[in-house]
Structure formats: C-alpha cells, structure tokens
Amino acid sequence: MKNIIYLVRHAQSDNSIKDETSRPLTEKGLRDRHSACGYLADKEIAAIYSSPYFRAADTVRPLAESLGLSIETMDCFKERQRGDASGIENFAERQWDDPDFAAPGGESRRQVGERFASGISDILKKHKGESVVIASHGMAISSVQSYYDPSFDYEDFLKVRDVMPRVVRLSFDEGGLLGMEEIILQ
User: Fold this and answer.
1) How far apart are CA 10 and CA 8, in angstroms?
2) Which residue from 3, 12, 86, 168 lies 20 to 30 Å from 124 (Cα-Cα)?
3) Could you confirm whether 79 is annotated as catalytic?
4) DSSP 120-144
5) Residue-level pLDDT at 89
6) Torsion region of 139: left, alpha or beta (phi above 0 gives left; psi -120 to 50 gives alpha)
7) E-only strand ranges, the chain
8) What is the residue range of 65's domain?
9) How far apart are CA 172 and CA 36, in angstroms?
C-alpha cells in the first residue's frame, strides 16, 4: 500500500508583520498559491494538514475549498523556533554544519526534522494508501527532507530557500520512504 505526501511550502508572506502565527500572504503570495493548488487539484487528495501559522494554511486554502476538505492544523508542522539568534553569525549555515546546533531557546535542525517526521508518521497511520497535503515552512520542510535523506545539505537548502510556494512529493510504503521529488511549479 503506497502513500503520497505532498509538502507545500507557503507562498510569499508579508515579512513586515513580525508575529509568526498571524503573518499573511502578500498580494504576490495570494496569486502564486494557485500554482501549487493547481498542481495538486487532480492528485486525489484525501486530507489537508497545515502548520498552525496563517500563511501556511492560507496557501492551501483554495485547494481545500475546491475539494471540499477542511484544513487540520498540527503544531508539529510549524516552522523552526529560532530562539535568540541575535549575534550568531551564519546562523542557518551553522545549523546545517551541525544538526544539533540551536540558538538559546530555539530548536536544532535535527529536532525540527524529528518533530516533522513524527507528524508524518501519524498521518501515514491514519491515511493508509492515500494522498495527503501538508502545508508548512521552508526550514521545516528542508529539515524533514534532510531527516529522510541525509545527503540533502546546506547547498540543497540554498537552492530552495527563496522558492515560494514549493512542493515536495514524498512516496511511502509499509517499509518507509520510497522516494522524494522536488516539483517544479510553472
């Protein structure tokens, strides 16, 4: 029995809004989210999950509405907690060099990957043989990609850091991950 998980990174958000939980999409983000939703429209999606952050759920909202599905939020899919990274040079690079590095009060890349993968594991048990969408964030998705494929490294992260929205297709069977594919949206 095969499962497909589509990881969707949110579209462009308004970084002038500092509150992580309520940050909205920009006008460009509102337009661009349709490329991800259009790609997913015919994928027989059984359920849609999201980070509790507004920008993630809002990215897949048109898909949910068109399919008549609700969006269930789960904390395990939220973005990495940065903590107090002020004064830490090359913060992101340091997290990739050392998966256990975290700023005071923050999460390491390993912690984020494990948290996210645990959520995926729960979804796989609940949705056997189905396709599911998970809307999340750039570092969180890259962390779980690295969790499943340790060859996904800082250089790979840099290639996708500014891609919004972004879709990654994960295929699973009972034995675990079968494959991971970056989807190029038009």
Assistant:
1) 6
2) 12
3) yes
4) HHHHHHHSTT-EEEEEE-HHHHHHH
5) 87
6) alpha
7) 3-9, 45-50, 71-73, 131-136, 166-173, 176-183
8) 3-183
9) 21
Place of tokens 């949705």: 127
Q: Centre a 10 Å sphere on the Cβ of residue 84 and count the other Cβ atoms it contains.
A: 10
Residue (of 141, 125, 172, 105) closest to 10 by Cα position: 141
Helix (H, G, I), strand (E, B) or coil at 35: helix
148 exposure class (CB count in 10 Å sphere: 0-12, 13-18, 19+): middle
Name the strands in the sheet holding 131-136, side by side, starting at the edge strand that comes first in the sequence: 71-73, 45-50, 131-136, 3-9, 166-173, 176-183
Residues of the chain below pLDDT 50: none
**Annotated catalytic residue 10:** yes
Question: Is the previous residue joined to 24 through a cis bond, with omega within 30 degrees of 0?
Answer: no
Opening angle at CA 141, ends 38 and 4, nearest 5: 55
Predicted local distance difference test score (pLDDT) of residue 1: 82
Q: Which residue shows structure tokens 């972004």? A: 166
Residue pair 46/134 in contact by the 8 Å Cβ criterion: no
Of 113, 110, 182, 175, the residue nearest 141 (C-alpha): 113
Angle at 175 between CA 76 and CA 152, to 5 degrees: 55
State how many domains the chain has: 1
Which residue among 10, 114, 130, 137 is the active-site one? 10
